[in-house]
Amino acid sequence: MAGKLLRIGVLALQGDFAEHIAMLRRLGVEAVEVRLAEQLDGLDGLIMPGGESTTFGKLASDFGLIEPLRKFGLQKPIWGTCAGAIFLSKDAHRDQPLLKLMDITVERNAFGRQVASFEVDLDVPALKAVSDDDVPFHAIFIRAPLIDSVGEGVQVLARLEDGRIVAAQQGHWLATSFHPELTGDPRFHQYFLRLTSAQK
Amino acid sequence: MLTPADEAHHINKHLFKVPFVCGCRNLGEALRRIGEGAAMIRTKGEAGTGDVVEAVRHARAVLGEIRRLQTMAEEEVMAYSKEIGAPYELVMETRSLGRLPVVNFAAGGIATPADAALMMQLGMDGVFVGSGIFKSGDPAKRAAAIVKAVTHYNDPYILAEVSRNLGEPMVGRQISSIPEAELIAGRGW
Fold first, then answer.
1. Sheet holding B21-24, edge to edge
2. What is the CA radius of gyration of chain A?
3. Is residue B18 within 8 angstroms of chain A, CB to CB?
4. Distance (Å, whole) CA A48 – CA A81
5. Top CATH class, A2-199
6. CA separation for the pair B133, B125 (Å, rounded)
7. Mean of the per-residue pLDDT values for chain B?
8. pLDDT at A133
9. Rounded Cα–Cα distance for residues A121 and B43 (Å)
């Protein structure tokens, strides 16, 4: 690293990319909006925000981004939040363009419609790697997906009280069903930046 | 188009689980609605016209007032809040954020990919389009083009590309040709 600034891209086709960029800048990292394949050049990692995963898929297909994103992900860390996690997954139980990188399957809108959105405190032991703060992570679920199965080599980072999986990691890929970018809590972003520095 | 049943008050939106989107023409109106619990704001524009000029006027008003607010001395903010009729705490929050505390859509008269890109360039978070799509010759194609224009609002090459061969646009009405009593944006306060 030697003081070299990390350059993190945020997929900016649609969704709450602005909130991720604000959090990254707060953490002193260079944040870049990514809408076209060439904007991936020189990035150390990529965040795919919340939004609507079919829209990501359609726009990524129409602008030739699917393969470049896959190639990028094979080399560099990617973190998907909510719709971004769906887009990162192998399978969402329906026909839609996905990056099919991370060995998880997801259930879209797993908690129901917009009115069923909720907030809950989660115990995320992995965050101890970036912070001594031993408080739970306040997680915001907005028409959220669930990770309904994980493959071998995928580490579960957080579960709801009933055991259902809402955060997971496979090597340098990270998926969360909720939106750390909407809280003031930077620990998940710090966790991703740590992954990214380790890879750089 | 609905007409208000209550001429003095808006609904207390804090009592609902379903998020409300409310219209505004300026910063005061936006912050009053947020104070009542609006989860999203849209500029009113002039709905159903295909004439984007009012949407631009309202976006310029909100964003320009926020810029002015940010350059104000702190002791001037209370009098300013009084002047625009907005809750002081929300005015202070907007001042420190440099934007509305909720997502801010452009709406009311957007009918082409160029209209949508213009609104994004002005600094809106997104656009709502209704009749601009549904009353056009090829709604599906126009909708797809407007989505792409919002994503790539700063890329003139892509904007030109997606604007080609969209079929007939909606038949617009120039706002200056509509009698005052028929205009919608003035409903609410």
1. B21-24, B40-43, B103-106, B126-127
2. 15
3. yes
4. 6
5. alpha beta
6. 19
7. 93
8. 85
9. 35
Residue B17 forms contact with A (CB below 8 Å): yes
Q: Tell me: the pLDDT tens digits for A141-193?
A: 999 999 999 999 999 999 999 999 999 999 999 999 999 999 999 999 999 99
In terms of DSSP bridges, do strands A155-159 and A165-170 run parallel, antiparallel, or are they unpaired? antiparallel
**Domain ranges (residues) in chain A:** 2-199
Residues found in chain B: 189
Strand partners, A174: A79, A169
Q: Which amino acid is at B187?
A: R
Q: Do B148 and A59 touch (CB under 8 A)?
A: yes
Interface predicted TM-score (ipTM) of this complex, two decimals: 0.90
Which residues are CB-contacts of B152 (< 8 A; sequence separation ≥ 6)?
Answer: A35, B117, B158, B159, B162
Active site residue A181: yes
| pLDDT value of residue B125 | 96
User: How high is the pLDDT of residue A62?
Assistant: 97
Cβ atoms of A137 and A160 closer than 8 Å = no
Between residues B115 and B176, the one the model is more confident about: B115
Does B96 touch chain A if contact means CB atoms closer than 8 Å? no
Instruction: Name the DSSP letter for residue B67.
Output: H
SS3 per-residue string spanning B143-166: HHHHHHHHHCCCCHHHHHHHCCCC
The distance from CA B147 to its chain's CA centroid, rounded to whole angstroms, is 17
Q: What residue has token string 């001037």?
A: B76
CB contact under 8 A, A114 and B18: yes
Which residues of chain B are within 8 Å of residue A115 when distances are taken between CB atoms? 17-18
- pLDDT class of A3 with cuts at 50, 70, 90: low
Nearest to B22 by CA among B42, B5, B3, B8: B42
For residues B45 and B185, the answer to whether their CB atoms sit within 8 Å is: yes
Say yes or no to pLDDT of A2 above 60.
no
Q: What percent of chain B has pLDDT over 90?
A: 79
* pLDDT of the residue at B2: 63
Whole-number Å distance between alpha carbons of B20 and B14: 9
Most confident residue range from A65-69, B105-109, B135-139 = A65-69
Q: Tell me whether strands B40-43 and B21-24 are parallel, antiparallel or unpaired.
A: parallel
Residue of B nearest to A17 (CA): B125
Q: Is A189 labeled as catalytic in the residue annotation?
A: no
Give the pLDDT mean for A51-60: 97
